[in-house]
Amino acid sequence: MAQSRLQYLQGYLRPHRQQLMLGVGALLLVNILSVWIPLIIGDAVERLKIAFSQGTILRYVVLILALATVMWAIRMASRVMLFGVGRKVEFDLKQRIFEHLLSLESAYFAENTIGDLINRATSDVDNIRRLLGFAVLSLANTLFAYTFTVPAMLRISVRLTLVALVIYPVMMFLVGSFSNRLRQQQLDVQQSLSDLSTLIQEDMSGIGLIKIYAQESNEQQAFAQRNHALLDANLALARTRNTLFPLLGGLASLSLAIILAVGARSIAAGTLAVGDFVTLLLYVNNLVFPTALLGFTITAYQRGEVSVDRIEAIFTAQPKVANVSGAITLPIDHVAGRLQAKGLTYQYPGTSTPAIENIAFTLEPGETVALVGPIGSGKSTLAKALPRILEISAGQLYIDGHDVTQVTLEDLRRAIAFVPQDSFLFSTKIKNNLRYGMPLAEMPEIEGAAKLAQIQGEILNFPSQYETLVGERGITLSGGQRQRTALGRALLIDAPILVLDDALSSVDNQTATQILDNLSQGTQRKTVIFITHQMSAAANCDRIMVMEKGKIVQTGTHDSLVTRPGLYQKLWNQHKLKEVLQ
Ligand SMILES: Nc1ncnc2c1ncn2[C@@H]1O[C@H](COP(=O)(O)OP(=O)(O)OP(=O)(O)O)[C@@H](O)[C@H]1O
């Protein structure tokens, strides 16, 4: 890891340095003040020994009460400030994680489960909040308590102080020897929690599939297994904590007992004043609480450390496709829509052969070109290469003569609207789904896009028309309706180039052909790449490119290709046969 955990933590705290310093400063003040009260009490004991008077007691009580109130107020202020820092870091981290996740490509989300990522963004961030709130407060408090109390104790009696503190190295050793086990067990808990979240997330998304295959009981078992693993991990951690913490508390109290025994003898021998003894006892008491808390502090710290690693792992993932330095801008109204490929090749990481190889073509502005070919021939790969959803090399693909790798991603993706087969819709009004790419679009524009996508008629039949909620909280659209809504969404941004990656597969041939006709008419004609298995819709396109094993093997109009022996003729004949048989 490039930086140490401590450096990461410092980085998280940097923006809130001032508040942190104020909080720690308040703690410092309170610890300095806390040395006084035992001194005052010791003094009171000595005075009262000489001459008992109500007035003296009252004066001491008022003084101690006043001091205690001030200390309480400062301690409160320090807690508000330090816990506030924890909360602010939590906010910053959540924000950073979300922004970073948005910058990553879908391949990252295929490798990392959503449940795990959600867990990191919530539970792990929460651990860091506790580390930077509670643990920092508690560590600083312990440190200050020792720094100011121990010298004050030494001034009273070196021997008794050493006697009282003899237990503390044992405590430190104990904490040290448990710390690795605690950290590992904490990691196991976080991992088990992530596994469980992943299963919940996947099962809820795939609930339809579970029902179709009647796999409820298997999924229940899988859940029980992971839930048990989480329970075991939590119990193991609790066992360790329950062994360590009471041990620490017990040892801290033991130091009080030792000093009582040894101190009483010194008083009897006349080498220690009663007042000093009382002060010393109160000092030891001051140390007991922070020391007994050390166990919690250490767990909070280790829990936080584990979470720092898990969160930083997200930040180390970098987007593969990014703007080159000095990338050129290409305003959409300057794009005519000419696409040219020269030796375009792409090989998926970890595979032995390129999915597309040495592709060359030129698409003129306004042309509608179908891309057909057997399954797995590389059509989707080519489609994804165009708006650089896949990382392609420079010098292989040009938009209006500009190398796409040199154009800013924002402009390139604004110029090339990509519509995939799986049309994802958000759980919101259909109107908002349509204007997703242009949130400020007005109704006439939205309706225009819906008409072009041939979905307007159906929307008007929905209960609340364009205001109808779709998805989880609303109505369920059919596959074809979803695809046409997704197409309407792409048409609304009015990109000069449109890539339809099997995006009309659930739409009947006639409607698909009508949609393509809509797109190729008028002054706002688009360059359309229509990837499809629907041969009759492809046949109506200006031109057809036929792919096989990652290469374009034939190009031409339907009429020219269908008469030539070759893959296209074969695909067309298969399609005709299917039509006859249906
Ligand atoms: N993410 C990936 N990692 C590795 N190989 C992949 C990946 N995506 C696709 N491939 C492989 O690349 C080849 C081309 O796939 P592609 O999806 O481009 O074909 P296609 O022509 O669009 O197929 P279909 O008609 O079924 O949609 C296939 O062999 C496929 O297995």
Ligand inventory: adenosine-5'-triphosphate
**Looking at CATH, which topology of the largest domain would you report?**
ABC transporter transmembrane region fold
Query: What's the arrangement of strands in the largest beta sheet?
Result: 6-7-8-3-9-10
Radius of gyration: 36 Å
CATH class descriptor name of the largest domain: Mainly Alpha
Low-confidence stretches: none
**Contiguous helical run count:** 20
Mean pLDDT across all amino acids: 87
Number of strands: 10
Largest sheet: 6 strands, mixed
Question: Would you list the SSEs in sequence order as H and E?
Answer: HHHHHHHHHHEEEHEEHEHHHHEHEHEEHH
Hey, roughly how much beta strand do the residues contain?
Answer: 5-15%
CATH architecture of the largest domain: Up-down Bundle
Name the structural class: alpha/beta
What does this structure look like?
This is ABC transporter ATP-binding protein. It is a multi-pass membrane protein. It comes from Leptothoe kymatousa TAU-MAC 1615. The protein has 582 residues and is an alpha/beta fold. The protein has 2 domains: 5-316, ABC transporter type 1, transmembrane domain (ABC transporter transmembrane region fold, Up-down Bundle), CATH 1.20.1560.10; 334-581, P-loop containing nucleotide triphosphate hydrolases (Rossmann fold, 3-Layer(aba) Sandwich). Helix content is 65%, strand content 9%. It has 20 helices and 10 strands. It has helices at 5-13, 17-50, 54-103, 106-111, 114-156, 158-165, 167-205, 207-212, 216-269, 274-316, 379-385, 409-415, 430-434, 443-452, 456-461, 479-492, 509-519, 535-539, 558-562, 567-581, and strands at 339-346, 356-363, 368-372, 397-399, 402-403, 416-419, 497-501, 527-531, 543-548, 551-556. The strands form 2 sheets. Strands 6-7-8-3-9-10 form a 6-stranded mixed beta sheet, with helices on both faces. The longest helix is centred in the middle third of the chain and has 54 residues, at 216-269. The two termini are 61 Å apart. The model has no long low-confidence stretch (mean pLDDT 87).
